[in-house]
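Module 6 notes. Inverse folding takes a fixed backbone as the condition and produces residue identities as the prediction. Think of it as a translation problem where the source language is geometry and the target language is the twenty amino acids. Below is one complete input and output pair. Work through it position by position during the lab.
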């Protein structure tokens, strides 16, 4: 089963989780990148607003044939209870090439926020699996067991 991890990360939590997951699964990681620096309070509110209003923003091209992978795992934060705008833009651009998709979300809240349902509703596709990891656990490096369990569950 050929898997690819795709990361979007503003403050590093999702990158850390994505790299750990890829290490366990023994697969590559690629990153969704933008040409803007989302820094400061204005950008915080702008980013939340973009996520809520489902805005498509410019992202850098990723020169990968996604159709060569059996599945793609997106690792990203939750913004305003929603998909981050750069992740939505990635999906808008490449989802039709992706055979099977799953999600790992990092978030401040310790509650189970079902952002994969937002994906399923907006993109009319089902995610094969998803998990949410609390940002505090990522910062304290106590997320690895959860990620290992998830990797074992999805490993075929
Ligand atoms: C614009 C913005 C909106 C956010 N909205 C939420 C939210 O609705 N719920 C939540 O639990 N965390 C929210 N967060 C926190 C991030 O999801 C969390 O810190 C995440 O781990 C950051 O991942 P990153 O370091 O990979 O960027 C938000 C963060 C930002 C920057």
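Target side of the pair, the amino acids:
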């Amino acid at each position: 089963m050929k898997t690819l991890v795709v990361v979007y990360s503003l403050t590093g939590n999702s990158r850390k989780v994505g790299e750990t997951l890829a290490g366990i699964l023994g697969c590559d990681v690629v990153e969704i990148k933008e040409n803007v620096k989302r820094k400061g309070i204005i950008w915080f509110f702008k980013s939340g607003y973009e996520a809520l209003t489902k805005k498509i923003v410019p992202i850098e091209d990723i020169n990968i044939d996604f159709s060569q992978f059996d599945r793609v795992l997106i690792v990203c934060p939750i913004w305003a209870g929603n998909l981050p705008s750069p992740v939505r833009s990635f999906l808008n651009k490449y989802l039709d090439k992706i055979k099977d998709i799953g999600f790992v979300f990092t978030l401040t809240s310790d509650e189970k926020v079902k952002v994969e349902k937002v994906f399923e509703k907006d993109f009319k596709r089902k995610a094969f699996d998803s998990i949410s990891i609390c940002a505090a656990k990522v910062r304290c490096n106590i997320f690895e067991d959860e990620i290992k369990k998830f990797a074992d569950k999805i490993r075929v």
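Reference fact for the lab report: Residues 9-14, 44, 47-48, 77-81, 106-109, 135 surround flavin mononucleotide (CB under 6 Å).
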